[in-house]
Specification:
about 425 residues; mainly alpha; 21 helices
Amino acid sequence: MIAALIISFVILAVFSVPFAISLGIAVIITMVFFSPFPVLGMAQRMITGIDSFVLMAIPFFMLTGRLMNEGGITDRLFEFARRLVGPIRGGLAHANVVASMIFAGMSGSAVADAGGLGMVEIKAMTDQGYRKVFSAAVTVSSSTIGPIIPPSIPMVIYGAMAEVSVGQLFLGGFVPGVLMGLSLMVFIYLWSFREKMPQDEPYRLREIWRSFCAAFLPLMTPVILIGGILSGIFTPTEAGAVAAIYAFVISFLVYKTITLKDIPSLILDTFSTTAVVTFIISATSAFSFLLIVGKIGIVLKESVFSLTQNPLIVLFMINIILLMLGCLMEAGVLLILLTPILVPMMNAIGVDLVHFGVVIVLNLMIGVATPPVGMCLFVVSEANNIKLESLMREVIPQIIPLIVVLFLITYFPDLVLFLPRLLMPVR
């Protein structure tokens, strides 16, 4: 049954059938010819796969990112980041990373960062004399921070599928996200001597204060979200709705950069993207059900455990496999597909599921910046008229510090678990 399922899916994928449809057809073929389960069971699994209150956060966080981009909030954030780190050698490249770290606390999406904030960053860097392809590569690599610093759409998906506290996952992403930003900034500083990067003149405290005041309301977004979750005022799912309302209020009523005419198109775009994501989750749920029934998880676990049961070695093997798969498949799809398979294995070797959730999300987010199928590569290349091949070559060295952080949090779980244990201890 498992062989038929996988072979059917691979054949359809080779002929460029859309991913979710390939999964669905593969499930139907397997159920009709190789499974004792009725085809009606597929519909049931598809419905139950998305019947989750937690998943309702996805459209709200997507809408928040769109409102922030369309409302010109990204310009304010980048200007504030520039005032903070612009005078450092390679200042605008550092500002690119810092702005992505700040924006990460609002959108929860790497693509939203690359597609919205990235346009502002690349223009500012090229105007100051940076190579355009280098500017684009920094934008791609820094966008991976978006889903790590909370809020995070991938962590919402993982939390729903692994039945893990989304609030704890959000807190667990803080330190790794900061480490990612710092590692990229160290790389940029060292690389700046090779590139002879420019830097801004030192800013006066008055200018820094003025840019902070201009960006103050957007900067309060993560404070409100995490504060509300920790205080119990709202759940992580409700936090998505709060973020969307807050982004609308400051864009429409305070800054007045969005009009009522803009709202329908923003909502329709959000609906369209959400429909694609939920359709993939739904189809993958049926696919994963057959994999689980076919005991693929047990087979995989026994295969790995026949080699070793050392958690450190198992995590190393999983990281390497995920890094390779991330080069070939879309990160969100891999997360949805592999979570039900890998979580039981982590339980068996005693790995904390909050720790593993942050590890797998960080791993797969590296994939959105990794050739040949990294989504952010395509977004930035298309939006800025840059050859994809040139961008791929430029971004590869910047992936190295991110991989270092990945293995750092893999083998030092307290970097992930310190804040969740401190602020949201399990009772």
